[in-house]
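Lab notebook page, bench 4
Experiment: in silico fold of construct C2
Operator: M.H.
Input chain length: 452 residues
Purpose: comparison with the prior construct
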Amino acid sequence: MIDKNLILETDYGQLEDFEGNARAACIDTRILKPGEIFFALKGENSDGHNYISAAFEKGASLCTVNKDWYETNRERFMGKPFWIVDDPLKALQKLAASYRKRFDIPVIAITGTSGKTTTRKMITETLKSAYKVHSTMGNYNNHIGMPLSLLNLNTTHQISVMEIGTNHFGEIKFLCDILKPTHGLITNIGYGHIEFFKSKEGVAKEKGDLFKSLPSDGIAFVNLNDPFISKMETKAKRITYSLNSKKADFSAKIVKFDENALPLMKINNKFELKLKMPGKFSAINALAAFAVCSSFKVNTEYIKNTLESFSGEKQRFKIFSVGNIKIIDDTYNANLDSTISAIETLNMMKSNGKKVMVFGDMLELGEFSKKAHEIVGEKVVKSGINRLFCWGENTIHTFRRALELGFGNSHHFDDKSELAKKLKEELADGDIVLVKGSRGSKMEQVIEEIKG
């Protein structure tokens, strides 16, 4: 519960006519619930100050506004509760930091180039067997979303599992200063947001701030398969996990993949897991979740049952059928590492027909973009993929590189509808289609046209 004293503890701005309590925070009046604080944030396309009336009509207990707006509009809202500040976003972040201090519970922070959300969901669902668990709302993992998620924590919760993301230097440290994690997990270091971090070393430097933020009595869950993570410094105790390394505290071996690339894995030569999510990347995510939940003394049988029943997240290598054609929706996001993993997983899957890749632009790669898209073309040619359909100004490099290497079944389109039309003409029963691209490429639009 957020009260007047908590807001005053931030030592930021001034309160007017607020004596009650608030249950949480919100920045969107469309989903605002009675009793929540509305923060009027100003974005590129909208200004929350235009929705103050709507916020009060929907039962906001308090509105946090810019002081210039308040001076101009105060007479319209006489007697209404306001938190008047220089910057409502800064107020949100300060409030979350003050709120965190009221809770003496384990807080697990998860970051990494890919696999953050899946690993967080695995951990959250498994911990629920033994604890009341608080977790990130949706994909709220940045400098706005993480504070909003944190303010949903309440006194019934025993553990918090929070996802934190970054695309600029300093963001992980900033978020950790608010969150004060006691436990940390970094899934992997890859080429995500390389436009801003310039290299994998830059990504590792930024992500490594999570481990640096942990207290000496905290725990860092360390992926020994990642050469960057395995060398990261931390004051915290290290619990290690790895595929095919006997040196790790939690070591796993993939016994086999079935015809749908679903892994059967054995952990510490003792516990077998048969996953419902395909690929090697799913196995390493499950192993990370196993390590975390075991450290919190969750019953091993429950860990096994939960991980075996976990079927993944929307748009993250989700498999479904349209007639007798299998579609893999991996459209949530894409970087070079996750795209290569997707190609390798598709290659492991058995098909009675063609294997087709539909590929949209990978974004935020900066100077590395051309080379990264060319590498994808090279990987496609070396794989068992039979057709390549590209869309976007960057995938032209994928298309050209595949042609250079003699892959004649490669196509490039400037129009998604044209791509979908050509694709539907070529698809036949037994085919498998992988659809992959960055969030901004919105490649799910192609899937919708295939389904239609």
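Observations: The chain has three domains: 2-89, 103-309, 318-451. The mean pLDDT is 96.
Next step: discuss at group meeting.
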